[in-house]
Amino acid sequence: IIKTSSITMALSHVSLGTNDLDVSKAFYNAILPTLGLKVIMEVDGQAVAYGKYAPEFWINRPLNREPATVGNGVHVAFAAKSPSQVDTFYDAAIAAGATDAGKPGPREEYSAAYYGAFFTDPDGHKIEIMYWSMTTMMKDWVSDSCNIL
Prior knowledge:
This protein is α/β, with parallel strands linked by helices and about 150 residues long. Helices cover about 25% and strands about 30% of the residues. Helix 1 packs antiparallel against helix 2 (about 85-95). It is globular and about 50 Å long.
C-alpha cells in the first residue's frame, strides 16, 4: 500500500515562455487533454497552468517583459501510459501546428524499454512525449542484477 502523503515528485512544475499566449494556449489546449491534463488556472492573461490535479506545466509571458526565447539543450518530456498514447499526443501536436523533430517509435539508443516522439511547439520549444515499458525495464534490471551476482 502506498500512502499518498509519502509520494513526492522530483519536480513541482515546468514553465515555458511564450511570445503569443493565445497561440500557445490553443496549441496546448489541443494536445494536453490526450494525457489527461486540463487547464488548472489562468493568471490575468499572463500565464496558463495545466495539470491533472494541480499546476504541473505552465506557459507564460516572461515576467521581465523581454521576448521569450528557447533554451539551447533544454526540452520538456511528457510521460505517456502507452505507445499508443505517444502516437495520439504526437499526432495531435502535428495537427495543431507543431514541427516534427522525430516521429513516434522505439529509440534503442535510449533503452529497449523506450518509445517516444519529438516536436517543437509554436514558440520553438523542444517537446518530447515518451513511454517507458516497465516490464522491459524490470526484465533488464533483473537480468543485469543476476549478472552482477
